[in-house]
Design brief:
The protein has 234 residues and is an alpha/beta fold. 32% of the residues lie in helices and 12% in strands. Helix 1 packs across helix 3 (85-97). The mean pLDDT is 91.
Length: 234
Amino acid sequence: MLILIIGSAPDALEAQNLKRELFGAIVAINNAWNIRNDWDFCIFPDDFPENRRPTKNKDNKLIRSNQYVPIQNEYGGFVYSGGTMSFTAGYWALGYFKPKAIAYIGCDMIYDGKVTHFYGRGKPDPLRKDPTLKNLKAKSARLEAIATSQGCAIFNLSKEPSSNLVFRRSSLENITKDSSPRGINTKLLKRALQWEEKLDYFVENGKYWQHLAKFDQEEIDALDELWNRVINLD
């Protein structure tokens, strides 16, 4: 099964041109449900405004924190995973579907220029002052490494020149031909997970921002650097 995750970057509109039959499910993050009308799931945080949420019908489902927090906790929780919906959607999809591959589009988290989102100028949530989001590339490397250990490959369909995702750039045509996961350093993966367990920066209800005094930023930074080395980027 191949899962499509759509974010809100300007190039997310490219998702309109992707063939529906190639995906086992389409997951829209926040406002991305506006991009195409055949999405299956819309995932959003509790503070996502009511008037911007889609209407649920028999063909789709709305994924709220009571559904994605328990799954993200299975993968270590929000401090290690990164507290932004691009990563939360990935972990939720990984745990819910157990897919063979996940393809992202519109999630590069680059906010240059006047147009930051497909609907104009939006709030660059991943750039807020947050100890879990200082190294977005490392957080994406963690997601891919854990997905790989589960037999799932992750790709980036974006054609933008820069990205805060380390996922392989690819086309749907190539993914359907070969969706093998990228190599990882299993020894470093084990070391990183053991380090996380030792630090014990786990908040069961997902509201990690209520416990910031507990977290050592230097430890998180060093852990991020380790995650950056787990993926074989060659």
